[in-house]
């Protein structure tokens, strides 16, 4: 017979503890990071199988960076490590990835004639779009953050100026 206490208990943590929470997977940032990771890995495999194997380092690095940020955001490392300005780092990663993917995709499609290079180029153009969407969204968040910061600073300056004026009297 089954113990009644174990029937209602959650299963012991195993590999499921390594998976990100469902809320993050359903968020826009989680879906974009997952798409970036998957596309970068597919492009990496395509470049390995192609004549354009010299381009394989860029998708590998982007895959590792997207995977790191995916798990960093999923495990809320961005809230624990305040010394890193996470949105700015993510924005710079997305901008550089979009530019690099666009450039190597054009080179792979136009210069090489094998199917794997063409597939890597097509997936590279798709990755360019995904990274561009991500950096557009991240840019809007950065602008909102900077506007909030700039609206706070003039008030702080006014109080400091008033304090220094009253001290000089």
UniProtKB/TrEMBL annotation:
Record keyword Membrane present: yes
Entry-linked PROSITE patterns: MARVEL
Residues annotated as transmembrane: 32-50, 56-74, 86-108, 120-139
Record's keyword annotation contains Transmembrane: yes
Domain MARVEL: 24-143
Topology of this chain in the membrane: Multi-pass membrane protein
InterPro entries per the UniProt record, alphabetical: Marvel, MARVEL-CKLF_proteins
Keywords: Membrane, Transmembrane, Transmembrane helix
UniProt region (Disordered), positions on chain: 149-169
Any one cellular-component term (Gene Ontology): membrane
Main location class: membrane
Entry's localization field: Membrane
Entry protein name: CKLF3 protein
Species assigned in the record: Peucedramus taeniatus (Olive warbler)
Phylogenetic lineage: Eukaryota, Metazoa, Chordata, Craniata, Vertebrata
Designated gene of the protein: Cmtm3
